[in-house]
């Protein structure tokens, strides 16, 4: 366990460096740059002066200097929002996205585990078909449509919540709900599949035979083993939910990171692209590491199998 | 020994069943998948057969009759410019399906090439190629799509002088295909690795067959099962991604319709003050119905071609 942790911690910066390099190459290779944004024509002298000011006149120097700055925790200056540093932009928007994404994952986890388990235990019942319906809607209806439907339902039909505000914690609910449907679909399916397989295994029969209550058999003996596949799905899902979804953020007017992420790419705001990608990747790698640790805690056989 | 005719023992046996027939029978048992296949077939026929009419009509504006609810003249209603939503939905279907299927094809080719190369090369090259896939998995796909699209746009439109609409569609499907091959590469690599330990491949190698022949004649045919299954699950993903890109405004460019940008337009047409619901409901229903059916077909194919993986 300790060896695995150490190994992964050493890999962490290497993976980030690889991702930094790939992203860097891509933003250099793609035509267009932040100094030629729409509606602004700079003369060459001004452009080269600007490039020098941001240390971008030479690609190699830019590569090295940004890497150096990143290691010290400085994500650089946004080129599009001139008064903001990337640290400020991410500092302001990441917590919002993390709150929405965290809530979404919690909803998805609670709903998915419950529906999946119920579907597996009461097979071919109403609740099984409900779990199937959730899974189907989650994978086949685009998020922006779900978002729009929720918006109309909550604000127009039921008149419960105002439209497009971001003031009280209740405003978290709708984007979180919209964002939770896709992970809920996957978690439901994975749980149901896992539970069906586990419930027919010998040790569950033994647990039943020795007279344990059905609830104890299901929640104490079966579910922890059945949700191992859910766990490995959860890592990347949490990371991507927490870094914000552009679509959901736009539909519900959420001041999160997803909007900056897409806008930075569209504006070729090279500093902000690098900053957001690195934050996102760091989150993904960290989540995967957490998932691996949890996996080993839940299934000790893993610790012996792999280094 | 007299050469008596061999006794015919197979007289009352049913005719032999080819693997394909067996798979088709298994597929047909899955009612949902068969129904989905019919619906997809009908939708494709409806969209593609009306192209001669819709390709002239999709941008025909009629400002007097803008935003009319569905009635006898316009069965799906009209949008803000008075264009028929029904016509736009049909042509949008053609474009969405074309992009979806072609992107899945691109993803399939890339995934198979990458996966088999890694598995057959083995060793360090394999490890390196799969690490690259891992790292690309870690990158946010939306960044990859947008950068690919922007990069290819410049290449095709400005350098090669293709028409802007055609270039846009080609770029779009290349970009979506270019990010969807990662899962495919992993699956194919796993499959090739497991095939290579099987006795018949060993036998082929012992017979001294060249590597290319082993690959083409013995490994590739055995990949069709997982290949078809994953390709059929990639198509709905690709259609969904096209709709997201259209929602962001970098997908199919108006006035050209696609289910994605029609739905995105519909989202803006439904607001608390006035709701022009038909602009959202019809494209969304078609899009969701298609995705739903394609997912059902994919599941059905998986159960039919790969019974071991079925639940």
Describe the fold and architecture.
The complex is a heterodimer of chains A (307) and B (311). Chain A has 307 residues and is mostly helical. Chain A has a domain at 93-259 and 281-305: MetI-like (MetI-like fold). Helices cover 75% and strands 0% of the residues of chain A. Chain A is built from 14 helices and no strands. In chain A, helix 1 (2-29) packs antiparallel against helix 13 (270-298) and helix 6 (143-157) runs parallel beside helix 11 (246-252). The longest helix of chain A has 36 residues, at 86-121. The radius of gyration of chain A is 23 Å and the shape is globular. Chain A starts with a helix and ends with a helix. The mean pLDDT of chain A is 80. By secondary structure, chain B is mostly helical. In chain B, 73% of the residues lie in helices and 0% in strands. In chain B, helix 2 (31-49) crosses helix 4 and helix 6 packs across helix 7. Classes of the chains: A mainly alpha (307), B mainly alpha (311). Chains A and B meet through helix 1, helix 5, helix 6, helix 11 and helix 12 of A and helix 5, helix 6, helix 9, helix 10 and helix 11 of B.
Proportion of residues in β-strands of chain A: under 5%
Tally of DSSP helical segments of chain B: 11
The span between the termini of chain B is 55 Å
Largest interface: A-B, 43 and 37 residues
CATH class of one domain in chain A: Mainly Alpha
Give, in order, the helices and strands of chain B: HHHHHHHHHHH
Unreliable segments of chain A (pLDDT under 50, ≥5 consecutive)? none
């Amino acid at each position: 366990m300790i060896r695995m942790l150490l190994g992964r911690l050493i890999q962490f910066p290497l993976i980030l460096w690889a991702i930094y390099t790939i992203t860097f190459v891509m933003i250099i290779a793609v035509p267009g740059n932040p100094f030629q944004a729409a509606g602004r024509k700079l003369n060459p002298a001004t452009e080269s002066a600007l490039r020098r000011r941001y240390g971008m006149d030479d690609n190699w120097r830019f590569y090295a200097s940004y890497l150096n700055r990143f290691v010290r925790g400085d994500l650089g200056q946004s080129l599009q929002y001139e008064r903001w540093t990337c640290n400020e932009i991410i500092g302001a928007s990441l917590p919002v996205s993390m709150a929405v994404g965290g809530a979404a994952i919690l909803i998805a986890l609670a709903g998915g585990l419950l529906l999946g388990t119920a579907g597996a235990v009461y097979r071919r019942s109403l609740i099984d078909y409900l779990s199937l319906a959730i899974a189907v809607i989650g994978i086949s209806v685009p998020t922006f449509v779900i978002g729009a439907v929720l918006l109309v339902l909550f604000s127009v039909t039921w008149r419960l919540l105002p439209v497009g505000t971001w003031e009280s914690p209740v405003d978290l609910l709708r984007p979180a709900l919209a964002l939770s449907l896709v992970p809920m679909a996957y978690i439901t399916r994975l749980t149901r599949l896992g539970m069906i397989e586990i419930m027919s295994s010998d040790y569950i029969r033994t647990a039943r035979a020795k007279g344990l209550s059905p609830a104890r058999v299901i929640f104490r003996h079966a579910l922890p083993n059945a949700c191992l596949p859910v766990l490995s799905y959860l890592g990347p899902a949490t990371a991507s939910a927490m870094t914000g979804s552009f679509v959901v953020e736009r539909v519900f007017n959420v001041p999160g990171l997803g909007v900056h992420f897409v806008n930075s790419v569209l504006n070729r705001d090279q500093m902000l692209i690098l900053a957001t990608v690195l934050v996102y990747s760091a989150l993904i790698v960290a989540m995967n590491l957490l998932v691996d640790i949890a996996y080993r805690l839940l299934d000790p056989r893993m610790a012996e199998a792999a280094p | 020994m007299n050469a008596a005719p061999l006794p015919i023992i197979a007289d009352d046996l049913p005719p032999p069943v080819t693997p394909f027939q067996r798979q088709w029978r298994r597929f047909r048992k899955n009612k949902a998948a068969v129904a989905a296949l019919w619906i997809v077939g009908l939708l494709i026929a409806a969209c593609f057969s009306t192209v001669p009419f819709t390709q002239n009509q999709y941008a025909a504006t009629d400002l007097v009759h803008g935003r009319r609810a569905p009635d006898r003249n316009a069965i799906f209603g009209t949008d803000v410019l008075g264009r028929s939503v029904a016509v736009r939905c049909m042509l949008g279907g053609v474009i969405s399906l074309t992009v979806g299927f072609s992107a899945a094809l691109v993803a399939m080719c890339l995934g198979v090439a990458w996966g088999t190369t890694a598995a057959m090369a083995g060793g360090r090259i394999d490890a390196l190629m799969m690490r690259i896939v891992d790292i690309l998995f870690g990158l946010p796909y939306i960044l990859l799509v947008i950068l690919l699209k922007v990069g290819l746009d410049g290449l095709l439109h400005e350098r090669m002088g293709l028409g802007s609409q055609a270039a846009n569609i080609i770029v779009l499907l290349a970009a979506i295909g270019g990010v969807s091959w990662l899962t495919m590469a992993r699956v194919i690599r796993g499959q090739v690795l497991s095939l290579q330990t099987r006795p018949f491949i060993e036998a082929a190698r012992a017979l001294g067959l060249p590597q290319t022949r082993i690959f083409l004649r013995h490994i590739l045919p055995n990949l069709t099962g997982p290949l078809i299954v994953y390709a059929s699950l990639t198509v709905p993903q690709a259609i969904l991604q096209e709709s997201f890109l259209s929602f962001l405004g970098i997908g199919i460019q108006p006035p050209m319709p696609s289910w994605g940008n029609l739905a995105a337009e519909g989202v803006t047409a439904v607001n608390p003050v006035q709701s022009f619901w038909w602009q959202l409901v019809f494209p969304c229903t078609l899009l969701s119905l298609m995705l739903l059916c394609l997912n059902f077909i994919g599941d059905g194919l998986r159960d039919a071609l790969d019974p071991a993986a079925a639940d």
